Amino acid sequence: MQTTTVKAFGTPSPEADLAPISINRRAVLPKDVEIDILYCGVCHSDLHTARNDWGGSVYPAVPGHEIVGKVTAVGSDVTKFKVGDLAAVGCIVDSCRTCNSCKQDLEQYCLNGFTGTYNGQDLHLGGQTFGGYSEKVVVDEHYVLSVPQNLDLAAVAPLLCAGVTTWSPLKHWNVKEGSKVAVVGLGGLGHMAIKLAKGLGADVTLFSRTPDKADDAKELGADHVVISTDKAQMKAVAGEFDLIIDTVPYDHDVNPYVSTLNISGTLVLVGYLGALENMLNTVPMILGRKSVAGSVIGGIAETQEMLDFCGEKGIVSEIEIIKMQDINTAYQRMLKSDVRYRFVIDMASLKNS
């Protein structure tokens, strides 16, 4: 297959810093869209993959699955995009399209395994897929998204992961005007959960361990802040919430939050992968028909729905723009939660290097 060599940033091993490398992109096939990448968001998953924190990373690794850019070429059978259009790519670049999940536009739950934008199995070139820390990307049009013209392009990038990861449970659990939603954790995911829930008309509460996030949360749209370490405040919101979106990325005790769910309420874990050390106490679950659930990213249709909604409401992420060459420093800062609330790479810094 014909290929093009492009500049990228990647790492050859878990211990090495990210540095300039060259990668191959396939020539445009009949259903493909080629995108010149203008901005790429920086996700915790990028760091975990670069460092092989979850195991299974294939090297060299080129992260990046929050991609926004401009269409530079389209295949002969492409109908949704033309050269010059704004376009975006999220976490998924392929799936089987035939299983029950894919037929329901739930590609993130593809029963045969979706192809990740990076560290997935490249079905065209062999080897692994390479992500958005690069000059351009070539993706089947089914997995390419339209970007509302009225939004700040750089601030759109994190919507492709942080946005849809919180949008998907909000929609699945039917959050609407008057719903009572709580968010645990105020980071890249948490700040989007607040903005999107508020956009849907919900009454929104942030659970925080310390009061220092209160002003930020209210600025983002939260109606209330509850200090989760304050027993009196937690008791005051017992049985309060229809949905809790838990964005905390490490092991933590979810039992105190379950007690704040309404009858038939659900706590959805979107930030943590792994075993919870504190076992779930089933008493409040059984006596209140309460659920603890999980959710991961979103399908292509609901990602487009989320982008269109953000276009209507003027919702974007809170970002700090960085140069590609500063990615290793950004990773160090991310580990310290030293970002409000998402890094986005200006890819001109890579192209001009």
- The total tally of domains equals 2
The proportion of residues forming helix, as a percent range, comes to 25-40%
What is the radius of gyration computed over CA atoms, rounded to a whole number of angstroms? 20 Å
Q: What summary fits the major beta sheet?
A: 7 strands, mixed
Task: Please identify, by name, the CATH architecture of the largest domain.
Answer: Alpha-Beta Complex
Provide structural commentary.
The protein is α/β, with parallel strands linked by helices and 353 residues long. The protein folds into two domains: 3-160 and 318-351, Quinone Oxidoreductase, Chain A, domain 1 (Alpha-Beta Complex); 162-294, 3-Layer(aba) Sandwich (Rossmann fold). The protein is built from twelve helices and 17 strands. The strands form four sheets. Strands 3, 4, 5, 8, 9, 16 and 17 form a seven-stranded mixed sheet that branches. Strands 12-11-10-13-14-15 form a six-stranded parallel sheet. A two-stranded antiparallel ribbon has the order 1-2. β1 (3-10) and β2 form a beta hairpin. α4 crosses α5. The protein is globular, with a radius of gyration of 20 Å. The two termini are 28 Å apart. The relative contact order is 0.16.
